[in-house]
Amino acid sequence: MAVTVYSKPACVQCTATTRALQQRGILFDVVDLTEDDDAMQQVQDLGYRQAPVVIAGEEHWSGFRPDKISMLS
Fold this sequence. Notes:
Blueprint (H helix, E strand, L loop, with lengths): L2 E5 L4 H12 L5 E4 L4 H9 L7 E4 L2 E4 L3 H7 L1
Parallel strand pairs: 1-2
Antiparallel strand pairs: 1-3, 3-4
């Protein structure tokens, strides 16, 4: 399953999310929302207004969600 983390610089929740994914050995891509207008539009179209936004297959969520991350491993 492809996992993508849509992030922003200096985002504490973004860092916590990517660290938790790394600790569980989950491969993921990071997209910087400040550098990719299409990605920003995509997450806004999903209804999100804060980073990080994680898309994992059909699942997606915003913020640091250890409960959701643990379900991926």
